[in-house]
Amino acid sequence: MAARLITLFLLLFLFPLKAFPLSLYLPYKYPGTVGYFKLDSDLPAKAVLGYRGRKWFFRNLKGSKELYFSIPYFVKGNFTLTLYQGDKKLFLRTFPIWKKRYRISRIWVKERPLRGKLLERVKREGRLLRKVLSEITPKKFKETHLYPPLRRLIVTTPFGARRIINGKRRSIHWGTDFRAPRGTPVYASLSGKVVLARNLYFTGNTVIIDHGLGVHTLYAHLSKIKVKEGQSVRAGQVIGEVGSTGRSTGPHLHFGFYVQGERADPMIVLKERLQ
Asked: What CATH number is attached to the domain comprising 86?
C-alpha cells in the first residue's frame, strides 16, 4: 500500500484561538511498522504519544517537536494513538491492525547453563542493551531510505518468528536474519554514531548505531568489527563482516531496528520512505 501522509490540525480547548499543526505518517498497519509524528513547537508543555501505557517522547528539532514510533508486536485488533499533555488527551486516532502470520523457527545449538558469572554477564549485558536502545538524542538522520546492510538480502529467519531452541519454546525473534558467507561486508543502514561495538554473549560481536530521535540499528554475530564506540558513520559505510559469533548456528547477519527501545520489523522499514 502506498504511504500516506495525514496532515491534521489540532485545536486545544484550553487555547481556542490557536491551532496546532500536526503531521502523522504511518505507511503500513502491521505490527513492527515505524511511524512518524510531528508537532508545532508552540505547544506549551511537554507532550507524549501513548498506547496502553507505552510512551514515546518528542525531541525539539528546528522549530518542531518530532518522534518516531513503532506499532508493538503484540498489538491485535485496533491500535489507538493518544497525544497527551499531562493528563489531558489532545488527540486520538485509531487504526485497524492488519493481520500477519509469523513463522516458527527451530534451531539446535550447544548451550551452557546460565549460572554464576555467566548469568551475571548475561544480566549485565541485557541492562546495557536496554539502556543504549532507549536513548533519544535530539538530532535526525538525513536519509529517506535505509541502505541495505548487505549487498544481497537472503532472509533465513524473519522478524517475529516464534523461536523453538533445542525443542523448547523460547523468545520471539526480534530482528531479521540474513544468510551470507563469512567475511561479507556489513554496511551501516543510516548515518549516525556508534554507541556499542563489542562482544556480547548471545549476539557475539555486535554493533549498535544511534541515528537520532530514538532510532537505532543493531548488527550481530559479526566476525569482525570495523568501527569504534563514539565513531560517526555514514549510510553505506562498512562497519563489520558477517560471522557466526555468539549463539549462532552458522554465518549470518542478525539485523535489528529499534525505535525508543521498541522493536520494529527491519523488512518493513527497508520498504518505507522515512520522514
From this structure: 2.60.40
> 140 with 245, same domain?
yes
Distance CA 23, CA 231 (A): 33
List, for residues 103-161, the tens digit of each pLDDT value: 787 777 777 777 889 999 999 999 999 999 999 998 889 898 999 999 999 999 999 88
Q: How many domains does the chain have?
A: 2
Q: Measured between alpha carbons, how far is 18 from 2 in angstroms, rounded to an integer?
A: 32
CA pair distance 170, 155, nearest whole angstrom: 20
- pTM, 2 dp: 0.88
Q: Which of 72, 96, 120 is the last residue of a domain?
A: 96
Can you tell me which residue has the cell 497525544?
83
> Residues 61, 152: one domain?
no
88, 110: one domain: no
Dist. CA 142–CA 137, nearest whole Å: 14
pLDDT tens-place string over residues 88-102 = 887 788 889 998 888
Read off the C-alpha cell for 168: 523448547
d(CA 12, CA 218): 39
CB 123 within 8 A of CB 57: no
Residue numbers of the domain that contains 119: 104-271
Question: What does the block give as the cell for 232?
Answer: 560517526
Q: How far apart are CA 187 and CA 174, in angstroms?
A: 19
Considering the domain architecture, whether residues 128 and 91 belong to the same structural domain is answered as no
